[in-house]
Amino acid sequence: MQGDRTLEALRAVRAAAKEAEHGWVLDTAAPSPQRSARALAGEGLVETADRETRAELSAWEGRPVRWAVRLSATGHDLLAYAGVRPAPTPLGPGPGEQLVELAPSQMTALRVFVGLAGELKSPPATGLAEQVRTAVYDRGARRWQLRLTQEQMELAAYGFWLHRLTGSAAEANRFGRDYGVLYSPGSEKGSPAAIS
Known about the structure:
The chain is an alpha+beta fold. The chain has helices at 3-19, 34-42, 51-61, 73-84, 104-115, 128-133, 150-166, 170-179, and strands spanning 25-26, 46-48, 68-71, 97-102, 136-138, 143-149, 182-183, 194-195. It contains eight helices and eight strands, in the order αβαβαβαβααββααββ.
């Protein structure tokens, strides 16, 4: 199952289980989550009642219970995580922002850069860490999408330059080619300067 459908199905199981006195979603639940429950069980997100549990539920219900499911610990944790994870921001750039699409290797380098913010003399620009944290991955384009200000783009170029000197130049070169922003050492203030 894909992300949104998985979460929707888990929420349906959770809601039905809350209404049940015994915490199990039974074969009589309406609408029946049986089809989606099989997929969820395959991913370990719900647990299915074994024969003994179905017998106990049958006695409780006063009728044969053919199947029953409830959230597993992993399913519960996924719903908890989904509840606090920030929703992806709209991809259209706001005032003073530009849509930036980064290859996975570029995103990895940028994550390292923002992760070092507390140790750097020239830390990432305000809001860059948040943009990296809430970036959206476009599977079709195989690119991470961020909305960056010019200042954030210049500091990203600085991060790519640091990455270039310690490993690969491909990320900095691609960023410069795609967005015309490259880090140029030698700023008078001692902070990163970018050239467009």
